[in-house]
Amino acid sequence: MPANPIVCCVKWGAKYPPLYVDRLRNMVARHLERPHDFVCLTDDRAGLEPGIATLALPDIFPGFWNKISLFRRGMFEPGQTILYLDLDIVIVGSLDFVFEDPGGFRFIGTFGTRPAFNSSVMRMQGDEQAHVYDRFVSQAVEVINSGRYAGDQNWITEQIPDTKFFPVDKILSYKRSMPSHAFPLAKKLKLDFNWLRAPRYMTVAPPPGASIVVFHGKPDPEDVMDAPYGPWKRAPFVKEHWR
């Protein structure tokens, strides 16, 4: 009998507190009906809820490069389905779509009209893409310092050139897929910025049918939960779902 799929996150350093892991686990539990196991790869499990299973990061790389350890041979059972989720996402709908199409690696392809790959959400099989890790560790210093790769997603895309992508209507970028930036419209219409800060104009919500909203870079979910963040609109849906 095949093992349950694993929903996995990676936490390193102090960029995100344990609260982010706890809330991610809670959101997954509410939005994924099928049996699954939740696991956090981390260099420090202090502060995590006792019920959260952890795996020690086998290597410590700079920043986002730690996600490459997901592909390390033996990290998960061969053939086991792994859904990786970044800590700075908000789950607003069912995750079942992730498991409905046949196996294979899945990635976020584009946000809106901008052709940029993103590794905030990935689906993979244990050991299936181990070459992503093997090739990286054989030249890690060179890769990290080369300046060729803006992020881990660039390396992954290079190593898995025939990857397929998640549906664009299911995984959205808060900054690129939604009308979350108020000021471009204000500038175009020559509106007063203070007037635009009124609550009814400074809120944004994901469209019906969306499942995941990705908060890459700044702001983080907590930054826009209760108020606007610079030019970025308040997102009341965060308070509803990010808990």
Q: What this model shows, in words?
A:
It contains seven helices and ten strands. It is α/β, with parallel strands linked by helices. The chain folds into two domains: 160 residues, Spore Coat Polysaccharide Biosynthesis Protein SpsA, Chain A, CATH 3.90.550; 71 residues, no CATH class. The strands form two sheets. Strands 3-2-1-4-7-6-8 form a seven-stranded mixed beta sheet, sandwiched between helices. β1, α1 and β2 form a beta-alpha-beta unit. The longest helix is centred in the first third of the chain and has 14 residues. The radius of gyration is 19 Å and the shape is globular. The two termini are 33 Å apart. The mean pLDDT is 90.
Which architecture of the largest domain per CATH?
A: Alpha-Beta Complex
Number of structural domains = 2
What radius of gyration results from the CA coordinates? 19 Å
Residue share in helix: 10-25%
SSE order, one letter for each helix or strand: EHEEEEEEHHHEEHHEH
Q: What average pLDDT do the residues reach?
A: 90
Unreliable segments of 5+ consecutive residues? none
Q: What structural class should be given to the helix and strand makeup? A: alpha/beta
Q: How many beta-strand runs? A: 10
